[in-house]
Design a protein that fits this description.
- The strands form 3 sheets. Strands 1, 2, 3, 6, 11 and 12 form a 6-stranded mixed beta sheet that branches.
- A hairpin with a 2-residue loop joins strand 4 and strand 5 (159-160).
- By secondary structure, this protein is of the alpha/beta class.
- Helix 10 (222-231) packs across helix 11, helix 10 (222-231) packs across helix 18 (389-404) and helix 13 (283-291) packs across helix 15.
- It has 19 helices and 12 strands.
- It has helices at residues 2-19, 44-47, 66-77, 92-104, 117-125, 133-138, 148-153, 181-189, 194-204, 222-231, 238-250, 263-271, 283-291, 324-335, 338-346, 359-364, 371-377, 389-404, 410-422; strands at residues 53-60, 81-88, 112-116, 155-156, 159-160, 163-169, 171-175, 212-215, 275-280, 299-302, 308-317, 380-381.
- The chain folds into 2 domains: 53-167 and 312-378, 3-Layer(aba) Sandwich (D-Maltodextrin-Binding Protein, domain 2); 171-303 and 388-422, Periplasmic binding protein-like II (D-Maltodextrin-Binding Protein, domain 2), CATH 3.40.190.10.
- It binds alpha-D-glucopyranose.
- The site of alpha-D-glucopyranose has 13 residues, from helix 5, helix 10 and strand 11.
Length: 423
């Protein structure tokens, strides 16, 4: 108990550091739904359960059991609504296109949307999602109760449009049963370079049954932009970042088809014990427990050399939904009580601050208290901030991928990326 309290305090301090706010956890959110009080004795027909309204939740495929578990828990918690999860691709760019097509047509097909932090602002600006300030106020919810970075990503023109589904940050996972204690300490401190990491990946590859030194996301998609954000130390050194990333791609320590690796290929390799190092998001921690052939006991996490990219997904209500109340009720549940399920069952970082100090969350998700995780939280960086983010991101990934695959010269790639960043 003492230990849990100690860890709770430590996590609160880390969180205060991250967000620059030192407030104590706010009181729990009110219960998700309360059935209207009956004023008269119910007749036989009134006693029959009313037909539930279906709420459609458009959310990306989840490699962990968490999304299904949170939907099931909500459906079991009340009698007014049944949430149906429309399981979409978890390629962020492709999912954006899919939802955009539906929104542009003014469709009410989806009631609640899951949106990547990099495009939620665009959806708010275009008027596709409904502001939630009044709903939050009516339910006694405050912006400060949620992950600060996630809330900012869904705030447009001084209005709040979103609540966090889950915040994300890039992490280096490594096999502490293979890496020396000295190297492990260096990694956890964050005081190492990509050249150091490459040398370690080459050195340890093949040990402990591994076939690869390191896996990461270098496919032509949004994940490559996240990885390059880290290699360029938050876009402060575009040329150096590209060169270091190409060296890693060309190294025998990474798989020959690394240019086709997204998060899925990455976690498949790491959780099955095939790689010593993997760059991935917090959900991979949960996957080691749910689907891994290695155990969490042989894994540690570290910050990335140039900082850890902030990512994450947000929940918002389709402005054209005909079920605004039910959409809000579900979204509020997922973003408050549901955060415990997301963290315990999926290894996600809670977006509802009070869950950071929840004993069940801390007990089930040991990663949150690990020094390497805390160091990563303290060194987060962001993708380019742009009013036309998807164009910027497309230009960056196209130039970077062409350079990494040997189809573009370094100077041309640097110029293209620099121009995209200035746009
Ligand atoms: C994760 C992040 C998201 C990012 C994506 C890239 O889902 O949460 O922000 O865009 O990975 O693949």
């Amino acid at each position: 108990m003492k230990k849990i309290l100690g860890i709770s305090l430590m996590l609160m301090m880390v969180f205060a550091l991250l967000t620059g706010c030192a407030t104590a956890p706010a009181p729990a959110a009110p219960a998700a739904t309360e059935a209207p009080a009956a004023t008269e004795a119910p007749t036989a027909t009134e006693q029959m359960p009313a037909e539930r309204t279906v709420i459609k939740f458009a959310a990306q495929a989840d490699s962990t059991p968490a999304t299904q578990a949170v939907v099931d828990a909500y459906n079991a918690s009340q009698e007014l609504y049944t949430v149906e999860w429309i399981d979409m691709t978890n390629d962020s760019g492709a999912m954006r296109e899919q939802i955009l097509t539906s929104m542009q047509a003014g469709s009410s097909d989806y009631d609640v949307l899951s949106m990547d932090v990099v495009w939620a602002g665009e959806f708010a600006a275009a008027g596709y999602i409904a502001p939630i300030d009044q709903l939050m106020q009516a339910d006694g919810l405050k912006i400060s109760q949620f992950n600060a970075g996630s809330m900012t990503a869904g705030n447009y023109s001084a209005k709040q449009y979103t609540l966090p589904f889950f915040p994300d940050l890039g992490l280096l996972y490594f096999r502490k049963d293979i890496v020396s204690t000295e190297d492990a300490a260096k990694l956890v401190s964050g005081d190492y370079t990509y050249a150091d990491l490459q040398a370690m990946a080459e050195k340890y590859m093949g040990q402990g049954g591994t076939t690869d030194g390191i896996v990461f996301q270098a496919k032509l998609y949004e994940g490559l932009v996240c990885n390059l954000t880290e290699y360029t130390a938050g876009w402060t050194d575009v040329e150096g970042g590209l060169v270091a990333l190409k060296a890693m791609v060309d190294s025998p320590a990474s798989p020959v088809d690394i240019l086709n690796y997204s998060e899925g290929e990455t976690h498949n390799s790491f959780i099955k014990g095939a790689s010593v190092f993997a760059r991935n998001w917090p959900y991979q921690w949960g996957m080691i427990a749910s689907d891994g052939t290695i155990s969490q006991d042989v894994v540690d996490v570290a910050p990335l050399p140039g900082g850890s990219t902030v990512g994450g997904w947000l929940l918002g209500i389709n402005k054209n939904s005909v079920n605004q109340e039910g959409a809000w009720d579900f979204m509020k549940f997922v973003a408050t009580q549901g955060q415990k399920i997301m963290s315990v069952q999926g290894g996600y970082l809670p977006g509802y601050n009070e869950m950071l100090t929840d004993a069940d969350v801390i007990a089930a998700n040991a990663m949150l208290s690990m020094p390497g995780f805390q160091n990563a939280l303290a060194s987060t960086i962001s993708r380019p901030v742009s009013a036309h983010y998807s164009e910027t991101s497309d230009a960056i990934m196209n130039a970077a991928h062409a350079y990494l695959s040997g189809e573009m010269e370094l100077t041309a790639a640097v110029d293209a990326i620099t121009a995209a960043l200035a746009n």
